[in-house]
Amino acid sequence: MATPLEMPKLGNTVEDCLLARWNKRVGDTVNEGELVAEIETDKATFELTSPVAGTLLATFFQAGDLVAVFTNICVIGAPGESVAPFQPQASPAPPTERPPSEPPPSRADQAAVSHQPAPPVRTAPLQQGFYSPRAKRFAARHGFRPEHVAGSGPRGRVLEDDLKRLYYASPRPTSLAKHLLDSGFEPREEAVGRLRATDLGPPPEKMSHIRERVARRLRESLAVTAQFTMNASANATGLLALRARIKARGETPGLPDINLNEMVMFCAVKALALMPEVNVGFAEGKIYRHADVNIGFACDTPRGLLVPVVKQAGTLSLADLAVRVKALTRQALDGAISPDDLAGGTFTVSNLGVYGIESFSPILNPPQVAILGVNSIDLKAVRRDGAIVFVEHIGLSLTCDHQVIDGAPGARFLKVCREQIENVEAIAGLEI
Question: What tens digit of pLDDT does each residue of 48-75 get?
Fold first, then answer.
């Protein structure tokens, strides 16, 4: 019996997915559980496997198509079985007739249209009917087929002189250059005269679907928010001491290998509980206050930047938070994270300190109104008891949306974050 394979709904917020790749072709034998296709959401790539064994009878979409969830994308069954019952319904074409509510044009309107000046002659596309016989011969003899050429003849007809002017003004590729151009290479800069292979660069890399979504959202973030960034630092002595004790003890059932970033995230959660006015969303001129702290963290993956979200982080201990962060990180790196685990964040932490970055301006993830950047740990000169001593400090960069958070409230929140970090040994609740 023929069995359809449909586009799954991979999260509450997912309405369609990109069909990234077919791993089987029509006519191929498919085993139960075997990979048939790969699909992408905004953030991650997933595998579609066959629920039955059989033959791939038909595919209804091509790689690169955006397909609505719960739509059949292919059919698997025995050769000769009909696939017609599983064919997706095509969207109805838009009506070509005038809507009943729209009145027919009046005679005055028709007269006004008839007296409008004729549109200017447009550039003629490459069609045999627009070419004079001599122009056709010139194009065939020189293998010159431009996409557009302005015709100077009657009614825009392309003459031989039109092609000659364009031909001798255009770069003419060598045979090798022409072969490279046909394979996707592009000129490095605008060339005149003879176009050689050395004038060409390799084909440009096409952005992935995920990278395109990330780029668009970052542009939108800068367009709809009034972002400003403040920088500060916190004494990292307690962070480093706690981290050293955790490493010395090693992992146990009640104590995972908690890293510095997870400690800072825990401190940020505590700061948000003390200053809930930062744990808000802003959309369409309205401020939405959140009852829970859903903290996201920037995660660098082979597919691009992802931001997994730990839900209800305010209810978790430091150890529980670390376990959850590690699990989400593994799923993100493997491309198996659920879209629901990438949505619903109320605040984000982005750590570039591991790369030695001393200060940066993290970009907001709307509708969130604040994001905390974590920088490197460096020695800082501090006056203590009349003497100058050097103490390790961790850099913090807070970006806020000035539409909701002014400079003073943002600075107060950054101060509270600093205090939590400097007292992390006391608030961690770990017995080591």
Answer: 999 999 999 999 999 888 899 999 999 9
